[in-house]
From TrEMBL:
Protein name: Signal recognition particle protein
Record comment regarding domains: Composed of three domains: the N-terminal N domain, which is responsible for interactions with the ribosome, the central G domain, which binds GTP, and the C-terminal M domain, which binds the RNA and the signal sequence of the RNC.
Gene name of this polypeptide: ffh
Organism placement in taxonomy: Bacteria, Bacillati, Bacillota, Clostridia, Lachnospirales
UniProt xrefs under SUPFAM superfamilies: P-loop containing nucleoside triphosphate hydrolases, Signal peptide-binding domain
Binding site for GTP: 104-111, 187-191, 245-248
PROSITE patterns, sorted: SRP54
Amino acid sequence: LSDKLQNIFKNLRKKGKLTEEDVKSALKEVKLALLEADVSFKVVKSFMKDVQDRAVGADVMNGLNPGQMVIKIVSDELTSLMGSEMVDLKLNPQTSMTVIMMMGLNGAGKTTTSAKLAAKLKSRGYRPLLAGLDIYRPAAVKQLQVNAEKIGIDVYWDDKHEFLPPDIAKNAVGYAQQNGYNIVILDTAGRLQIDKDMMDELHEIKEKVTVDDSILVVDAMTGQDAVNVASAFEEKVGIDGVILTKLDGDTRGGVALSIRATVGKPILYVGMGEKLDDLQQFYPDRMASRILGMGDVMTLIEKAQQNVNEEQARAMEQKLRKASFGFDDYLASMDQMKKMGGMKSVLSMIPGVSTSQMSQFEDAIDEKAMARTEAIIYSMTPKERSNPDILTPSRRARVAKGAGVSIDEVNRLCRQFEQSRKLMKQYGNMLKGGKKRRGFG
Ligand code: GDP
Ligand code: MG
């Protein structure tokens, strides 16, 4: 899906002006791309209608070109389809009990995700207890125990094999109440496919204990099937939220789209790997960007549009694409960043930028620091500015002397520059529709 859309939008971006025909054919391509990605036909249809309704007659405003306008509309609609707002689990106060029931087909990722969730809640100050309810597969409880041990979480299970899952659930909650836990996560048994026994069992669990969150775990790789699964669970048991797993694989962002649109339940988290800390909050806007494969480029465009004239931006984009980013550009970009609301707000829109990377830049934009930075850069020869890699220690010493600063300061600026060049490259790749879309969630 992403590759396809990226191509479409790459073409749109290249065009200065867009005719109505262009818009129409672009939307036709979007439709095909979504269908190819297993987004359910119904969802695609309503999505196309929303986009068309908004696109037709919409002003191309704020100095955007028509292509950017279409990108904005498509991206907005994708986001709103997936829920606009981030949603979390419904958790009771820590002084009382919260019961979370994990459900889904075999292999969806219930056991792994149960442990991931427990770890996350533990780090938020809760005392979670995991309960092994999959009594049908021999190694199921063992798997839960192995995971739980890695993260220091206790597991309740029916070690004497006396009870069926609904009663095990009840006993687990009783045990939790007596032993100072405030969350119980029920790792239920799945089946290979939608199955009456499974649904009945889940139903019975809900009758025996008060379940606060019935969470459906869905493998994001299952495509169109996921929608049928979600609909069945919603109808038979009821769903409070969805967790999509295996989004680290060759993912179909389309699943998020159609599940949200079909069952109307929020996606809370996404699984991004097999490790127990690979669970991330679901952000609809980021997911939309991911599906479109371009980060929050639209927001960037919007902000930049207000303050930076188009030629300047285009020249910068050219540089980013070629990644021929030198100290002169660094100065210019610092200036632009200032106009755009600070480096931090700009960096936060680039996928894959970590908080620690961001904090390195916080002081870089400070007025005084900027004056020193300018002094340092102006003490470089033009050749050094455009090709910072040639800045050997002896050259750095010369620059430091010229600018009246310490060598340490020059070194720090060089490091900062390197970081920023890396980020710019990342951003440049993103503009190119590069494949490095790491920073999801
Ligand atoms: P269950 O049958 O629903 O309990 O599923 P499991 O928790 O046993 O997971 C099935 C397989 O999927 C295991 O090999 C997990 O390691 C793997 N898995 C679960 N979540 C993820 C994920 O987010 N990413 C990846 N790559 N693998 C996952
Ligand atoms: Mg399991």
